[in-house]
Write a structure and sequence with these properties.
377 residues; alpha+beta; seven-stranded mixed β-sheet; five-stranded antiparallel β-sheet; TauD/TfdA-like domain-containing protein; TauD-like_sf; TauD/TfdA-like; oxidoreductase
């Protein structure tokens, strides 16, 4: 597959769709109600994205000036930082661009990048306000990301213990394609990049579906059955894919289905069948054959539609001074948000609706952080 654009911004990563190893023999029909083809902007391949301008919003000097003025305005209000929203973070010129980006993430290609921020030019408190303020124009609701109530998750390498080194948040190993357990939109701010590796790699679940629907509808049937034994964040049998409101929704992660060193799977839980393993491998194969890499820069803010876009991470290596540090949020828009399938509602409610602790750590904290301390060790 030819390069997507010239230069280092992004490129088609591997072989074209026709290279996917699929079985073309006759197979059972698609599940009832599932379409034979998804005709949507979300069904993209790298070759269909002509230029980086299709998905990168580059902030110019006027935009940065407007952002800085919004930070200064918010700080005069004497409000907690987690209350930042479009009404108190005014962006009269940039705001409409961000609202267009929100529509693109929810109903267009399903992803976008804001580029042009310089993290080193802001104290961490102001940089966090910028991140929350800009993202509030994309999706204003922010969700918990774990049982501790962390609202900002810091993704940094940590090999202080074997358990930490194997956790997705703190490992520097590659990760297969997956979705987060909850959140219509997943966003992350890149505070700093690794010395090598660590690219953002995404693929369209719609494109994966179209390939399978045309070649292996039996795998679609497997993915749509309600017998997938998810172990995380709680045990639940449900489908991997859903089709409702004329939209495909995919949600899964291998750790929740197979376990890993950080999250060992109980032997008392059902194991995946050979058909289910084949289906996971088919998703991975097609997603890798149609994936797109984005060469991340410090200051980039990524937004991906967690219901329609798969993402993975390549392995990375930090250097003495170059250390990868992402800050992630789970988001939902009251205006643009999709209807969530019943089988996924519990996780969305835990993230966005339940009352409880919300922790807004501006820097990575120890696992057993004591709430009365304001700084890490």
């Amino acid at each position: 597959m030819s390069a997507l654009v010239s230069g280092p911004i992004s490129r088609a990563a591997v072989a074209p769709i026709t290279d996917v190893n699929v079985n073309l023999v006759a197979a059972p029909a698609l599940p009832s109600g599932f379409p034979s083809h998804l005709d949507s902007e979300l069904a993209w391949t790298p070759a269909s994205l002509a230029v980086a301008a299709d998905f990168i919003l580059r902030l110019n000097e006027d935009d940065i000036t407007e952002v800085n003025a919004a930070v200064a305005h918010f700080k005069t209000l004497d409000q907690d930082g987690d209350l930042v929203e479009p009404t108190n973070f005014p962006l009269p010129t940039l705001g409409p661009k961000l609202e267009k980006l929100s529509r693109e993430v929810h109903n267009g290609k399903g992803f976008s990048v804001i580029r042009g921020l310089k993290p080193a030019s802001y104290p961490v408190e102001d940089l966090s306000l910028v991140y929350l303020g800009l993202s509030s124009y994309i999706a204003e609701q922010r969700g918990r990301q774990d049982k501790r109530g962390n609202m900002l998750v810091h993704i940094v390498a940590d090999n202080s213990t074997k358990l930490a080194a194997e956790h997705h948040r703190h490992s520097n190993k590659s990760i297969t394609f997956h979705h987060e357990e909850a959140g219509d939109v997943i966003s992350w701010l890149t505070r700093s990049t690794a010395a090598a590796g660590g690219k953002c790699i995404i693929s369209s679940a719609y494109t994966v579906y179209n390939v399978l629907a045309a070649t292996r509808p039996d795998i679609i049937r497997t993915l749509a059955r309600s017998d997938w034994p998810f172990a995380l964040p709680r045990f639940q049998c449900r489908p991997v894919i859903f089709y409702q409101d004329n939209r495909l929704i995919m949600n899964f992660g291998r750790a929740a289905l197979l376990g890993n060193e950080a999250h060992p799977r109980s032997k008392n839980l059902p194991s995946l069948t050979s058909s289910q393993m084949e289906a996971l491998d088919a998703i991975e194969s097609i997603a890798r054959a149609t994936e797109m890499e984005i060469q991340t820069q410090a200051g980039d803010i990524h937004f991906i539609n967690n219901l329609a876009i798969l993402h993975r991470r390549e392995g990375f290596a930090d250097g003495p001074t170059e250390k990868r540090h992402l800050v992630r949020m789970r988001l939902r828009s009251s205006r643009e948000g999709w209807t969530i399938p019943t089988a996924l509602e519990h996780e969305w409610e835990r993230a966005f609706k339940e009352q409880g602790t919300k922790n807004w750590h501006l820097d990575p904290m120890p696992d057993f952080y004591f709430p009365l301390r304001s700084q890490p060790n």
